[in-house]
Specification:
Length: 119
């Protein structure tokens, strides 16, 4: 391990280490990531989904960020399900949990499994 890697690891915040863990998770299953990334990218660009993320992006405390991320994922879930399908939704929540559990002391996000009768 070189000095730069070592110092980065020693000085990294919990969120930075969680982001690294997420990257490792995505790269470990590269084919699966490649199968879902285009639809997830398009969905993330949707104004409704971007609005879901705004509360998370402005939260300042780890507890607040966990709660805000849980709310954001509930808000985004139906858009992901409708645009990309159930498999992509499951994949994205699995990846989000890799990040959230590492970044915010075992914070977990879950998928609302109730069916919306309005569809």
């Amino acid at each position: 391990m070189d000095t730069c890697s070592l110092s980065s690891r020693l000085c990294a915040s919990q969120e930075e280490l969680a982001l690294k863990k997420l990257g490792q998770h995505l790269c470990a299953a590269r084919q699966t990531f490649d199968a879902h990334k285009i639809c997830l990218k398009k969905t993330a660009e949707n104004a409704e989904v971007a609005a879901c993320l705004s509360q998370f992006l402005t939260s300042s405390t780890p507890e607040g960020r966990c709660t805000a991320l849980q709310g954001a994922t509930k808000c985004m879930a139906e858009q992901i399900r409708q645009s990309c399908g159930e498999e992509t939704l499951q994949y994205s929540f699995s990846a989000m949990n890799v990040y959230t559990s590492a970044a915010y002391d075992n914070c977990q996000v879950s998928i609302d499994t109730t069916i919306d009768d309005r569809i």
